[in-house]
Amino acid sequence: MSTSSNSGLYREGNEWVSESSGKRWVAVIGLEVHAQLNTRTKLFCACEYRFGAQPNSQICPVCTGQPGSLPVLNGEALELAIRAGLALEGTIAERSKFDRKNYFYCDIPKNYQITQYDEPYCRGGGISLESGRRVRLNRIHIEEDAGKSTHTSGNFTLVDLNRAGVPLIESVTEADMDNAEDAVAYVTALREILVYVGASSADMEKGELRCDVNISVHPVGEAWRTKIEIKNLNSFGHIAGSIEHEIPRQIAAWETGDPERYPVQETRLFDAQLGITRSMRKKEGEADYRYFPEPDLPPITAPYNRVEELRSLLPELPAARRARYMTSLGLSAYDAGVLTASHDVADFFEACARLSKEPKEAANWISNEVLRAISGDEFDAQNIDELPIKPFDLSELIGLLREGVVHSNGARQILREMMKSGKAAGALLLELGLQQVQDEGSLKAWCAQALQQKPEVAQQVREGKEKAVGALMGLVMQSSKGKANPQRVRELLLQMIAESDVS
Question: How much is the pTM?
């Protein structure tokens, strides 16, 4: 149970309870997610788009809506969109078309947006969440992005049209969610899929994945009420925060019993600093956009054979990969989730597991050491492919550790040097002098010396306190300068204590 900041409301599971009226309320949530397609050029012109470029440096007559300019569809964008639709289990239409969505804003240079209205290229599909919920997709359509407007404190608005015309797909869910956790889980899964199939980089910090949340609330057993849209959420935290604020806000408004204070259909924005939503504008209806078919673009055709060819080229998707790692390789759900979050990391792991024949060891080293190193400031690499080491290199290190040639601390030291220099594990083992001493005579001599130094520890072991042997092992490791094999040292110490007890 959780309590809302709006007094008089608390949450039980996915229901909100009003202390004053006793009513139990539920939310209805649907999402519209815009993803930028991974093309080099824009949707209807040859302009390149690079995030962070000089404002208005990547524009032409087509994407700025100059008179007489005509759009030409980017074929790569269409194929990436189809890949995304197939990966999301949608049905690709053999025929679809573009439409004009008319509205007036300073960052829409043509005063209309080219999108798809009644004949989108993909319908249906969905994503099954780990919670057991199935979030259905109503449709996915292709459209061009708008430019970017910046409102200054001096009552000026600056417009950058670099982004105008960038290809997007908008996936629209059914209203199948009722809480923030499932909404975030859905967007997380959607992002993973889009990145896996190469349709989008989906970098939320760069605006390549943006989410609009539609929310309404109603008492249990009653009809749905007014829907409100929250626009342009570009982080998982913002998605969750906006929903967690908006649900109790709407319930509290309905609970007043005052029609003047009831929620109205509108578009709101999320104020991340204050954790609240603010009214932006009254929500337009479909009639306000005056849709009509785009006269300058022919209908899209997606031949069945080409669609099936693209289907055959899809990689194994994250959920299926996670399930296989747990069932076939014996990994935990956590490790499987970490390794499949990135297609590159999953490929690296599979190659390393195959070469080393030690999937759990490979998973531990990649999750706990390699990925942690990338996330820090020590290495320039932003992803695993930019590191100088390859799966074979890590599998060689795992082999050295398995054979007792190096201890775990030494292996970590070797790995860090491998990630800096790209040198082989075996070469660094010798160069750094980290090979473990395997000679039985030397190991027994160090063990005997430790037993002489602390005979009381040997007595504790005889009394059943086997963990006390660690104090003796520390002395051996100190004498050997960390080069003794810890496992063999432990075995020898216990053996020598047992033999002295018998004698």
Answer: 0.85
